[in-house]
UniProtKB/TrEMBL annotation:
The keyword Repressor does not apply. This is Serine protease. One of its GO terms (molecular function) is peptidase activity. It holds the Pfam family Trypsin_2. InterPro entries: Peptidase_S1_PA, Peptidase_S1_PA_chymotrypsin. Transmembrane segments: none annotated. Keywords: Hydrolase, Protease, Signal.
Length: 295
């Protein structure tokens, strides 16, 4: 058990030969004050965390999602909605299946900061969708970012461009349930296998994020930056190994670990290099590593 800071200092000092309790206590007080000054300085220097709200999230008929943009997206570009590949209205894509530029008229309920539905957005197409290596869907909308902001006063969430870091405080914001889950990134999984599908470098949450059905597709938001670092997609429900709704972790040596009750997400930064001019998905763009259609 770790001792409280003052207690640890006092115990150490009292063990020293010839040191009186009064002198030890005074020394402890000085060191405690110094420690507090260091902590206060660190707190003052740290960037203020942005409050995570529902603004920019959407509710699908069966899942959650969010209006997202890359750092290079223009206000006049058609907006994108991010969700999971397994949330597509066309059904689960099979292993190796990639959908690009498929017509869609799907609708999404746009939420404000408090989780109130403020309007309906409509897709023009499934810009990209797959459950291979990752589990994501990007819809292109009939509205631009500028039009959405003008009509509803809501800005898109920005996609993170770098690999997230373990220990990062995150919030999973579900537009379907109008509910948030707060925890940390616990680590990353070499391969996450669920039924017929395998995902690479998945995000594992600490146990506090006990996401449920309907939270699929929710943006995973970095509490400090407000950026989308991942998209929530699955969890091990009852301890089974590598079955549907019970993903297992597979390490570099093929070792399998089952973590009952633990939930996972797929990273967002991997899609940013694939978003080109006009928000068009370009799988041949430099740095894009998303799976391509086989034919």
């Amino acid at each position: 058990m770790n001792k409280p800071l003052a207690g640890a200092f006092l115990a150490a000092l009292l063990l020293g030969a010839g040191v009186s309790p009064a002198a030890a206590a005074e020394s402890v007080q000085v060191q405690v004050r110094e420690q507090r000054q260091v902590q206060e300085t660190a707190t003052q220097d740290a960037p203020a965390a942005k409050a995570v709200t529902f603004a920019g999230t959407v509710a699908l008929s069966n899942c959650s999602g969010s209006v997202v943009r890359s750092p290079e997206s223009a206000p006049t570009d058609p907006a994108l909605v991010l969700s999971n590949g397994h949330c597509l209205e066309t059904g689960f894509p099979g292993p190796g299946e990639v959908l690009v530029d498929r017509p869609s008229t799907r609708t999404f309920t746009l939420l404000d900061a408090s989780g109130n539905g403020v309007g309906t957005l409509r897709a023009s197409k499934i810009a990209y969708g797959t459950m291979t290596d990752t589990d994501l869907a990007l819809y292109e909308l009939t509205s631009t970012y500028q039009e959405i902001e003008s009509a509803y006063g809501i800005e898109a969430l920005e996609l993170e461009t770098a690999h997230p870091v373990a220990g990062t405080a995150i919030t999973v914001a579900s537009g379907y349930w109008k509910r948030t889950y707060s925890c940390d990134i616990d680590g990353f999984v070499h391969r996450l296998k669920e039924g017929r599908w395998t995902w690479k470098d998945s995000v594992r949450y600490t146990p506090e994020c006990r996401t449920i059905g309907g939270t699929s597709g929710s943006p995973v938001i970095d509490d400090a930056t407000g950026k989308v670092v991942a998209v929530n997609n699955t969890g091990n429900e009852n301890g089974q190994e590598c079955t549907d709704n019970n993903p297992c972790e597979v390490d570099e040596n093929g070792g399998v670990t089952v973590r009952e009750g633990i939930n996972y997400a797929q990273q967002a930064y991997t899609m940013v290099p694939c978003i080109g001019t006009g928000n068009k998905i370009d799988l041949d763009r430099e740095g894009c590593g998303l799976p391509k259609p086989t034919s």
